[in-house]
Description:
Layout: E1 2-11, H1 15-26, H2 30-43, H3 54-62, E2 68-73, E3 78-87
Antiparallel strand pairs: 1-3, 2-3
Helix pairs in contact: 2-3
Amino acid sequence: RYFVASGNTILASDKARIHEKVKKITGMDPAALKDYYRQLRKSGNETHGRGAGLGLVEIQRKASVPLQYSINDINETTAFFSLKAELWEM
């Protein structure tokens, strides 16, 4: 089994939006996730947006279990988003 971890700074004002998007994709079954991925690809709205879009959906599709994540405040305007994905095979 493999683990992939990543992190990035985000605007503190984006915390709730990112939390809701990650919560949504981690709660989907594989078929729903596949449909959602296709929908995002077709719309083109999530490919170069403000985070928590197509890339996270793609990671969740490849992950063996729901993504683990956290969002921690750095200061009033900035937070740190960290993500861990578990993969059984590559």
